[in-house]
């Protein structure tokens, strides 16, 4: 089954689909082995891995990341493309490039373009009008080549314009042709109410470490509330950042790697298994004259 078909099946199924964001093929493969059903390419982590902010990412960087991840796994890949890099015509090109990368879905949000860097400091979303975003959603639908390619629309209106406006926009975007909508409720009560007040599937984003109190849902809670997807947006980078920082600091402080040599052998073999070196060895031995 193609990844796009897998995603359509997830969308039409009954259970909550678990998603995590990755920012390179290696982390995506680890997530696939762990049992996640879809991999997201999110701007926060990809930007962080390149030491820039999400609003400073270019379309080519997102396409390259999506292509590398999609080629390395057998899961659907969804790509967050911010405000779509411009007006409806720009959005159409964005959709075509992301679909051609091998991804199975795209998200575009109703913030202004260019998106402001300070969004990650104080979460002050600067949204365009609902009517402008409806035009973008219609352009997204028109631009896709494969009808199984999923169009996700995101509204950031709930924090700055209120819960009711966020729900209104979510329904407008679904009416315009979006397959899924992402909303960002401010409170647990809003998160609980949102699925019952929208006319289509909702995708909930757990933004760990957010500084405005946005609720972080468990799988059981998201299932009970009626969400179709539950995503961990930044957990991969949070965990890797801490682990690598601790390793480096211990190494430089003590002058010796803190990893036990026997443990390192196990870890290296695990990495090689994720990369798939055993299969490469077999192909090389069968096709190449070894010295």
Calculate the terminal CA-CA distance, rounded to whole Å.
Answer: 41 Å
The CATH H-level superfamily of the largest domain is Phosphoenolpyruvate-binding domains
Element pattern in H and E: HEHEHHEHEHHEHHEHEHEHHH
Uncertain ranges? none
Question: What structural class do the secondary elements suggest?
Answer: alpha/beta
Structure, briefly:
This protein has helices at 3-12, 25-34, 43-49, 59-72, 88-100, 119-122, 130-143, 157-161, 163-175, 188-193, 219-225, 235-254, 261-275, 277-287; strands at 17-21, 38-41, 77-80, 105-109, 150-154, 180-183, 202-206, 229-232.
Descriptive labels:
12% strand; TIM Barrel; alpha/beta; 291 residues; 8-stranded parallel beta barrel; globular; 51% helix; 2 domains
Description:
Helix content is 51%, strand content 12%. The protein has helices at residues 3-12, 25-34, 43-49, 59-72, 88-100, 119-122, 130-143, 157-161, 163-175, 188-193, 219-225, 235-254, 261-275, 277-287; strands at residues 17-21, 38-41, 77-80, 105-109, 150-154, 180-183, 202-206, 229-232. It has an eight-stranded parallel beta barrel with strand order 1-2-3-4-5-6-7-8, surrounded by seven helices. It starts with a helix and ends with a helix. It has 14 helices and eight strands. α11 links the parallel β7 and β8. The protein is globular. By secondary structure, the chain is an alpha/beta fold. It has two domains: 3-234, TIM Barrel (Alpha-Beta Barrel); 241-287, no CATH class. α2 (25-34) crosses α4.
